[in-house]
Write a structure and sequence with these properties.
2 copies of one chain form a homodimer. Chain A is of the alpha/beta class and about 650 residues long. The first copy, chain A, contains 21 helices and 28 strands. Chain A is elongated, with a radius of gyration of 32 Å. The N and C termini of chain A lie far apart (about 95 Å).
């Protein structure tokens, strides 16, 4: 009478997460091979099916395995490398330099091996990954028995696994061809983000994804900065821009979507684009809180993700589910937003939709793959149990369960964990290898942090300038005399500017690090109003001086960069041990004197109150030219009424140091 | 040479959480009796101290026990009773009715017994509690070996353990006298909140707390609603108001403080008031996000709390610490806000300050009580370990550790948990008793939810009115004729009003539940502008009709209440299965006709478009009076030009149902 299957889960509280949120309590589920054959009331299933393996679930919750819709699994190896930093400091200052140095196939495999164990233990049965060397991620997931969407990263910069976009695209195609049709691995292409790609790249990856009918993963609208930049550059926010490049025509999975307007949500809904919501990461990096209640209302397929363990710092989906439910309430002022059932749906059936895999996974229904977990709701921290409201069990899972309450995990009909024991056996070795990587990375960073110059280079944008400078400076007591002299016929004023300069000099314990100057120039117009502002960063190496008649020739190594970040960024990144501030009023003239162009600065140092100084300066690249200019500069100083006895040879910051 | 102590923790990564955040790795800590004798480098301590008990910590983190600065421990028994509801529905609809029915000394003891085990397991060594029958909380904490600040609730309403404020105050004094000086229990008085107390109560509790030098616990500025109400009633926000009543002159612990202005923060700092930040609860009930980064900057002593398990839904301090750190970043846009070290400080030394107990606990320093926990940072979900940055260990604790990584807990020199085994032995019995309570509460709620009337009574404010009503209604076609008639000498108009009425009728599957009408009246002035608005709620029982000549006498049970909540509240609370809307324009005259006062309504039903009707109505309490009024009403209808053939006997909502 009864049909034979391989295994029957009995005596479970089955949360099917089907369209009607059907529950069976007590319920049972029959599994044959990799497939769910039936789910229903315990007695009915036990009557209809025979199986060599009967699993008594002891009243635990049996639900679809959790789906982590966005992560960078190999980054377990970078967990805790640098925290509580601003996004730019964290990313440009630490993550990217370390990745450039360390990411290899071995790194990716090891990191993913660790991630898989962590995910299994916390009830995740499927994860969507974006990183480099994704073939290694695929192999690690296959080895662990986890289902994974593996996305080969494509971007316009050289990456650890590709010298160019074309190479990355070729790798992605190779990955897709190799894994397509695999029972566990879904290959995918992953353009990193609109701002790290180009129109051409986005179109090419979309074409690739459509050609092979594979998912496309991309970071979209993660920060307000990104949205503003998109508006500036493309005259539209992020979603319309990527839509224009055809990105939404693929089976797209958009990570983050923190900053969307209503129209963009409708666009995502219309295209069936999946959204991966990463609440911990978005908070930790202060990107914001994604409007998932609104997206859910509009009908967007919202899943939940952990993001990489470097920005979370773990792969615990229970934390993310809980946070998704709580944040939706706290940020909207509506405590009924994203109720527990919806949050669990986002991590199961909704996540499956977001990954375009709902035909395979996400619910306990006949015909779907046997990806299921058992969660013990009988723990003291989850007692007592109220039964009045059918939705109470979702609330218990979301608000009181911990990932450590997961006891059993099955993927594709295979046991990955039973009674809290993960079947993979190499954990100790993996941990040792990870610590070895951490030691090497620590050494690399400690070495790098010894030098301000290498830290400056690490964040990019800085160019080294070995410069010689002629500089003659005298203390001025009679300014009127100077102004009179400037009117003299032998000095031709080519240009005049007036500004306020705010200099911050960062100093370091080791003197040979030099000084790092952060300068903001405020240009003043004729009415003394601020006309424009510019910020520059200069690393001033130790000075080598050689005296010329009445003047000083300075030579020093300088790294100059436009200060594209804030003073705060540089302070947090370089961690100076000392800091000096100088505020001065500067009148600057470019003059022609005896056929030579020179600069005259009339500086009144307002903070600290050092007095007024006259500088004659000229940049030069040769010793001979320097000697000539020194002579002319000396004569100019004289013509301006300067007295060589008042010569000052120190820089301002040296005067107060 | 070396001094003898009782116990030495060796080979630990000691986070002292002292003023300088001193760490010892490897470190050791010597304990004698209930006291920490010394903390320092492993070799030094081992050299200086001998002990019969040497605890090899195997490199785990040894830190001060976590301090939960705000909870309602007995509410473990209400965990998961009702979730994802609006604060009013949750509190007035579920929590308070259940508390009124079930809270007893037995309930409080059982709930606290459970809470203590949960807290021990998750590394909490001290908690601050506010509830009823606090003597039972004290006994449970003492039995479990936990340190606790136990606050007897005082409020202006009758409570489960006190019929009046005076009784509650006397209980509090009794509690204080009984427990003051106890090595683990710190008695305290807990005025619930400004809005549930009065000036007199607040002054009395402040006097009591000051007289006995004990902490005072209170909920302050939890919701924006509370702040606005304080401004309306007292012309000032919450903190100045309670300051005025002397509340801040005590050793006060203010829970929540979600909505504060800068001045209020300064006031809290000035008075040394402790703040208990409850991030999960504040999100879950959508109260908002407390500005703790700002408070911390100002110098307010901010601790972290779980709030009660009915609004969290657990007592896991690791979740709260993590959320405190993440929310501060996400809500401010600054990822450096509340870095991990600060978050751990808030849960240890800062929490101790918030509870006014920093002379005793909060750090691992000689002379303090031996309240310490060991946390295993070697788990896979916390690997690998970077050592470059001293603060990395705090980040590992905050962002990647789980409460289940706590392995050992000591309070006052006594082991409460070793190697994850809690020493209390009665867990199974406690869980059975808790399930028994849950079953009883479920039955109570299921019974109550069967009747709309009892649900209405449960939220208070509703009064039953058994009423008879004379009602005569006809369809009107000629309105001018009516207005003419009203000018007739036999009708004296006593009063006239014009308004717009918006009625929502909620219906229920079971017809004998009747209809629940939510009505908003907009009074219109002479210029047809809205003058004022009033909302009322009426539960209209099944109608019993008996015809009188030309009219209908209706008798029905009605519960009437001013609708102090929104239509949304009632919809979410009563969960009707159907809903009807009627919008009408109503002119209402109170008239004297043949010596009898009657009401005339001229109703134009705008939505749905039913036409215009004339009603003559009068409320009555006796059958004889009703028959008399029915005759007069009939005559009045005639005088107004009504034709008995146009009589309508249905209520408007019945016409469209």
């Amino acid at each position: 009478m009864s049909e034979t299957v391989d295994l029957v889960f009995t005596n479970a509280h089955v949360l099917t997460m089907d369209e009607n949120f059907t529950q069976y309590d007590p319920g049972a589920v029959a599994v044959r091979g990799d497939e769910i054959i039936a789910a229903g009331p315990d007695a009915e299933i036990q009557q209809n099916f025979d199986a060599p393996q009967l699993v008594d679930c002891q009243g635990k919750a049996l639900l679809p395995g959790l789906i982590n819709t966005h992560t960078h699994a190999p980054m377990t190896l970078l967990r805790g490398i640098a925290d509580d930093l601003r996004l730019d400091v964290w990313l440009l200052g630490y993550l990217m330099p370390v990745e450039r140095e360390f990411v290899s196939p071995e790194f990716v495999r090891l990191g993913t091996d660790l991630a898989c164990i962590e995910m299994i233990r916390s009830g995740t049965t499927c994860f969507a990954d974006m990183y480099y060397f994704e073939d290694e991620v695929a192999k690690a997931a296959e080895y662990a028995g986890l289902r994974a969407v593996v996305g080969q990263t494509v971007l316009r910069f050289p990456a650890p696994d590709a010298g160019s976009f074309e190479e990355a695209l070729a790798s992605a195609e190779q990955l897709i061809k190799k894994w397509k049709g695999h029972p566990l691995i879904i290959p995918s292409v992953a353009p990193h983000a609109p701002y790290t790609c180009t129109d051409t790249i986005l179109r090419a990856v979309a074409d690739l994804a459509i050609k092979y009918d594979v998912p496309l993963q991309i970071h979209l609208a993660e920060t307000e900065f990104e949205v503003n930049a998109s508006r500036d550059e493309h005259n539209m926010p992020v979603i319309p821009y990527v839509k224009k490049q055809g990105v939404l025509d693929a089976k797209t999975i958009a990570a983050h979507c923190v900053h969307l307007d209503d129209g963009e949500m409708n666009t995502l809904e219309h295209h069936g684009t999946g959204v991966a919501h990463n609440p911990s990461s978005n908070l930790k990096l202060a990107s914001g809180i994604a409007p998932i209640a609104k997206m859910h209302e509009v009908g967007v397929h919202v899943g939940i993700g952990t993001d990489g363990p470097a920005s979370n710092n773990d792969l615990d989906m229970f934390e993310e589910i809980r946070l998704a439910a709580l944040l939706a309430k706290g940020s909207s002022g509506d405590p009924t937003a994203i109720p527990a059932r919806t949050a669990i749906a986002m991590a199961t059936c909704g996540g499956a939709k977001a990954l375009h895999l709902d035909h395979l996974i996400g619910s306990i229904e006949a015909g779907k793959r046997a990806d299921m977990i058992l969660v013990d709701l009988g723990c003291l921290h989850n007692a007592p149990r109220f039964r009045r409201d059918d939705d109470a069990i979702y609330a218990r899972l979301v608000y009181a369960s911990k990932s450590t309450d997961v006891t059993d995990v099955m993927v594709n009909g295979n046991w990955l964990m039973q009674d809290r024991v993960v079947h993979l056996k190499n954990e100790t070795e993996l941990l040792q290898s990870a610590d070895e990587f951490a030691r090497r990375i620590d050494s690399f960073l400690i070495e790098r942090e010894r030098s301000v110059a290498s830290k400056l280079v690490a964040i990019g944008g800085a160019a080294e300038q070995e410069s010689f400078e002629v500089q003659a400076k005298i203390r001025v007591t009679n300014i009127d005399q100077l102004h009179e002299a400037l009117k003299g016929s032998d000095i031709e004023v080519l240009h005049h500017r007036h500004y306020h300069e705010y200099d911050t000099y960062f100093s370091f314990d080791e003197l040979d690090q030099g000084w790092l100057r952060y300068r903001e120039d405020e240009y003043l117009d004729e009415t003394e109003a601020v006309n424009s502002v510019r910020a520059r960063l200069t690393l001033i190496g130790p000075v080598q001086e050689s005296e010329l008649p009445s003047q000083v020739l300075l030579s020093r190594s300088r790294y100059m960069a436009p200060a594209s970040h804030s003073r705060r960024f540089y302070r947090e990144y370089f961690k100076p041990t000392g800091e000096l501030e100088i505020v001065k009023d500067r009148q600057r003239w470019r003059v022609l004197f005896r056929g030579t162009e020179l600069y005259i600065n009339l500086d009144t140092i307002e903070k600290p109150d050092l007095g007024t100084f006259l500088e004659v300066k000229s940049r030069t690249w040769s010793r001979v030219d320097a000697e000539h200019k020194a002579t002319v500069a000396s004569a100019l100083l004289g013509a301006l009424g300067g007295n060589p006895d008042d010569t000052v040879t120190l820089d301002y910051f040296q005067m107060i140091n």
